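Fill in residues.
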């Protein structure tokens, strides 16, 4: 399981389009650009508490979307299955043969991104 900060960033990528423009902007500045609450407040000319409140409401909304739609959970399950398959293939093929196929495995992995 990924940590909460990374999870929220992933939820933003999946469901950010469903948030208001202001919510999305604040979350992008916080989770993607790594700005502090104070930096965001100064930039948007609102209080730090206002930024915090919008951030918390938006995160609750993202979690609600995930609870209903489960896209992140499904992606995590697919990646776990992919990794299990890779492990089994490495065992079956041996290290040398497996290394020959790594570029193809990466192409398959990119389908999940």
């Amino acid at each position: 399981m990924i940590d909460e900060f990374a999870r929220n960033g992933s939820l933003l990528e999946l469901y950010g389009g469903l948030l208001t423009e202001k919510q999305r902007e604040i979350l992008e500045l916080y989770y993607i650009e790594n700005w502090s609450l104070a930096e965001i407040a100064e930039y948007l000319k609102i209080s730090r508490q206002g930024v915090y409140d919008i951030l918390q409401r938006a995160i609750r909304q993202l979690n609600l979307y995930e609870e209903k739609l489960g896209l992140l959970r499904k992606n995590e399950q697919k990646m776990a299955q992919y990794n299990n398959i890779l492990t089994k293939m490495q065992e079956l093929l041996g290290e040398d043969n497996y290394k020959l196929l790594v570029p193809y495995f990466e192409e398959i992995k990119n389908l999940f991104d």
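The helical segments are 4-15, 21-32, 37-44, 48-69, 71-93, 95-110.
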